[in-house]
Sequence to fold (454 residues):
Amino acid sequence: MLTNHNKAPMSPSKVLAAGFLVIIVIGTMLLLLPIASQGDIRITPLQALFTAVSAVCVTGLTVVSTAGSYSLFGELVILTLIQVGGLGFMFFVTSILVLAGRRISLRGRMLLHDTMSLPALSGSVRVTLQFMVIVFTIEIVGAVWLATQFIPLFGFWRGVYYGVFHAISAFCNAGFDLFGAAGSLSAYQESPSILLPFSVLIILGGLGFAVLADLMDNRFSLRKLHLHSKVVLAATAVLLVTGTALVALLEWDNPETLARGGAGTASRIMNAWFQSVTARTAGFNSFPQASMRNAGKLVTIFLMFIGASPASTGGGVKTTTLFTLVLLVRSLFRGCEDVSVFGRRLAPTLVRTALGIFFISLLLLAAGSVLMTSSEQAGSQEVIDLLFEETSALATVGLSTTQTAALGAGTQLWLILLMYLGRVGPLTIMLSLGRASGAKCPGPRYPVEQVIVG
Fold:
């Protein structure tokens, strides 16, 4: 009997890539509706597509003002896209089916396990519901706190709405805001009661669902955590401290950034901290990014490129990828064959995956730098600003040192592609187009021979 291979189920990587595309298309169509825009403003198809991709991929780059161009309906569409894109569509599908009393099939559990990077197939639905409780608890607490800060400024209902919108946007590392011409959080540069809650929401969203669940299951005992959680927490702590120190060192006396308005020492440290947090990969800013010195921009580019952690709401090559490569270099220096940390040895396939993600991401940035520089050569854009923009797109950050709307249509389309690749993952895209991960290569297995490197 012949087997019909055309009816074979889609791989998890293909489901993930196709699922995000479907959400983007739906979001674009909704944002094109007249009811989605304010007054006589008409959103073009490219603007709607760019906004939908940026929201679903939780980036925050915009070509039109969210507060100034979209109506309440349009803002709610964007907020929904942020929530679905940040937490993952499989997360929402499973949650809705479970709440409706529907049984999740084995195929659905496998997709859920792979697309959400769950630790094991067994108990995947239970873990998803646990994630749901954790996520919405954090968002609700964040919304309540931010609402108490915004109500005195904007009135009760608008303050509540601002609290909900920005709590979701911050936890999902999206970077969308409703402050319009105020310039993200620049008006609150001296407000720790706003910047610090934003920081907490961004960090929690960027740690990843598995780490949050692991911390709660072990009652925040670091000794009992899984290796993944230990690596994520260690890498996150190092990057936050190092990023804060470098931003403070390079921008301390810059009157347009940390020293704006004669800010004191505490304020400068707080904003250096916030810059270090938001660059991985939230997209809010407490001072104009274009006003940073080139060295400060380079540090921010590095932080954006690294990004958040796996199975989180953030992007980038991920903290665990950087940590793995650092451990690989350490093992080379020590002359060790194994890559190990915290009393555990990392699998060779994991190290190869980390190298692949890092190399592919660098290749995309290199190709994009040439394309964007060639496309925008007639303008006044500096190369470092274009690199900043495309890194922000690929790492789904949303920070910008230039006017994204002023870039050419070709450049904006490239940024759209980068945002999509950054959220789905370049390695996932390659797997969805090629052979399954772990599959044997076709052809014979050849003998080993050495090649001189270095």
Observations:
- The radius of gyration is 22 Å.
- The mean pLDDT is 86.
